[in-house]
Amino acid sequence: MSDDGGDTRSLTDLDLPQLRALHALLTERSVTAAAHRLARSQPTLSSSLARLRRHFGDELLTRSGNHYVLTPFAQQIFPLTGVAVAAVDRVFAAEADFEPHRTQREFTIVSSDFGISVMGGLLAARLLRDAPSSRIRFLPPTPAVFGREGDYFRTVDGAFMPDGYLNLARRLDLYTDRWVCVVWSGNSRVKGQLTMADLRELPWVTTSVDPVNRSPAWRQMELLGVVPRVCAIADSFVSMPRLIMGTDAVAMLQSRVAAFAAPRPEFTVLDCPFDVVPLVESFWWHPMYDEDPAHLWLRSVFEEIRTAL
Predict the structure, then answer these.
(1) What totals of helices (H) and strands (E) does the chain contain, helices first?
(2) pLDDT tens per residue across span 221-280
(3) Which of 35, 61, 92 is the last residue of a domain?
(4) Boundary-marking domain end, from 92, 116, 134
(5) Using CA atoms, how far apart are residues 15 and 261, in angstroms rounded to an integer?
(6) Do 283 and 158 meet the contact criterion of CB atoms below 8 Å apart?
(7) CA dihedral angle for residue 107, residue 111, residue 114, residue 115, rounded to 10 degrees
(8) Are residues 86 and 52 both part of a single domain?
(9) Residue 152 — φ and ψ, nearest 5°?
């Protein structure tokens, strides 16, 4: 603080490289790793860290044993640094006259492997044909995504997600699917069809036990009195059938995924023994992109692709 009580910290002391350095340092928790991430020298990042510490009046990184951890203040601002860097990148990637065949824009979409497996190939083919210098980056739907939708979805083009997961103001329905149950063909308990008793008694494989990330169909099952006994948690829908192989476990999958991830004769795909809610896969986005020419074009691509699904 200055003698007259004013704050001596000035934003003019910082610049875009410092913002990127801050984000890299808080992400990597290491000067060496941050330097590698930004392709800068270690002394340069050390100097940036010292400058940032003076600006914030906080250590940001403190040593704990043989590694560094974020201070409470650094934990507080860390999510904001990612939003800020992404927003700046968006600003400077904007094109006054968007032309698909000339654009070098990177479109970013949050999606599980389910959405990628259904939409990814069609989208990539269309971009290669009409916007060959652009690219698509898929990001995983982490718990942090669901916890801060407003801020996070200002930094990405949108998400492939079914209804019931996100609370965004804009959506374009792409296709419908249904939930099915998959068991190993050698399952000793299931012979031809599943019962509600089977759902209660058999072990389960799933992708999440977090209440926030559970599918509406899973929540519906719990409302009907079934509390699944989870024996394994996979990081993707596609890998779930591999985990039930050789066991009496059951998995709930989208029928489109089950068609290629659980091939016969190794697996048996069965109807759920209750009137399961349908699955509507949509593209969701933040209203700030409503009039973005590149985003408008991307949505027109989805409009065309969905007719082929």
Answers:
(1) 13, 12
(2) 999 999 999 999 998 899 999 999 999 999 999 999 999 999 989 999 999 999 998 899
(3) 92
(4) 92
(5) 48
(6) yes
(7) -40
(8) yes
(9) -60, -45
